[in-house]
Backbone:
């Protein structure tokens, strides 16, 4: 059986929902859906009842700086994302994107973070891998329709994952609540003056809709790459199949390209590889001290990040993939068009 949610067919059908308790600490698959006589191919879970009919318009990320104090405001919200031709996913998101918008701060900044939880029913939270905090305090739940503000120091440079840390964490991440925060090093990277173009590239995977059983026992349905705009006008995509094939990145012959990469997971590792070049300079987790040279493939554990830099020496189309090619067949590929 194909694992594929036909979302359009499901809305309005009287079928069981995957219930999330009000305190968000337990998922319970109350009944199994009978798929024997329907056009629906397979579904073992359904949209959480309070989310039915909700598709919240993406809310732009808010970032304001006052010296080294950075005020970041994000939303937790329920927004539909078309993962591929057949799959519309009512994602649990930050700001209506999955992955959420990239957050960029400087080493030494104080982050004043506010989460506006627009979800009508489920608590959410923020776990920034870039900070030191007592998780039960700094990453505490924000209740539906409420706002929570938290203050952190960003004292370690790098390319870090962020995600909702509300239990069960797997469901919140796999349903879309994840993204990347970059903490720029005070003294930069030793190769800063060689770099011509910068992009953020994120890998994540998707499972059967809101289905903890599939998230735990199953294989991902889609493994995808996305990019997030570092500046206005840059391409910004969700993690959908073909996002960076349909909207390729662009560069010129001789450019040194820097990718800030992160593998969200939640479950799979990434073997990040750019076809037709070698990553001359790599900074594991984006820390300038973790400088590696001449890498063909960069291993990224779930949540792991890196800064990778390579030169494109001839015109053409350069694909980047995870070298676990079963995942390429599920969508994990992007493309750079290099012209004279
Ligand atoms: Cu959440």
Residues:
């Amino acid at each position: 059986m194909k694992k594929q949610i036909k979302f359009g067919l499901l809305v309005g059908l009287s079928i069981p929902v995957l219930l999330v308790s009000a305190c968000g600490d337990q998922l319970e698959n109350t009944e199994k859906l009978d798929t024997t006589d329907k056009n629906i191919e397979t579904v073992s879970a359904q949209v959480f009842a309070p989310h039915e009919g909700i598709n919240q318009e993406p809310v732009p990320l808010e970032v304001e700086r006052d010296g080294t104090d950075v005020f970041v405001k994000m939303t937790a919200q329920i927004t539909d994302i078309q993962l591929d031709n057949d799959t519309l996913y009512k994602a649990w998101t930050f700001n209506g994107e999955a992955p959420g918008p990239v957050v960029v701060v400087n080493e030494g900044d104080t982050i004043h973070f506010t989460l506006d939880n627009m979800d009508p029913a489920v608590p959410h939270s923020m776990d920034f891998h870039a900070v030191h905090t007592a998780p039960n305090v700094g990453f505490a739940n924000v209740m539906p329709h409420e706002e929570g503000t938290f203050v952190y120091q960003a004292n370690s440079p790098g390319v870090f994952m962020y995600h909702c840390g509300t239990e069960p964490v797997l469901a919140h991440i796999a349903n879309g609540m994840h993204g990347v925060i970059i903490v720029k090093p005070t003294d930069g990277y030793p190769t800063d003056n060689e770099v011509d173009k910068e992009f953020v590239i994120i890998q994540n995977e998707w499972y059967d809709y809101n289905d903890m059983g599939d998230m735990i026992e199953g294989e991902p349905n889609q493994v995808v790459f996305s990019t997030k705009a570092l500046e206005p006008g840059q391409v910004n995509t969700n993690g959908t199949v073909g996002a960076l094939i349909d909207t390729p990145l662009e560069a010129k012959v001789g450019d040194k390209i820097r990718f800030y990469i992160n593998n969200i997971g939640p479950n799979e590792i990434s073997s990040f590889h750019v076809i037709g070049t070698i990553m001359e300079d790599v900074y594991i987790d984006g820390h300038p001290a973790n400088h590696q040279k001449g890498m063909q493939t960069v291993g990224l554990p779930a949540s792991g990040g890196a800064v990778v830099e390579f030169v494109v020496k001839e015109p053409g189309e350069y694909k980047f993939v995870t070298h676990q090619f079963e995942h390429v067949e599920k969508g994990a590929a992007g493309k750079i068009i290099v012209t004279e």
Notes: The chain has a mean pLDDT of 89. Residues 36 and 42 are 9 Å apart (CA to CA). The longest strand covers residues 69-84.
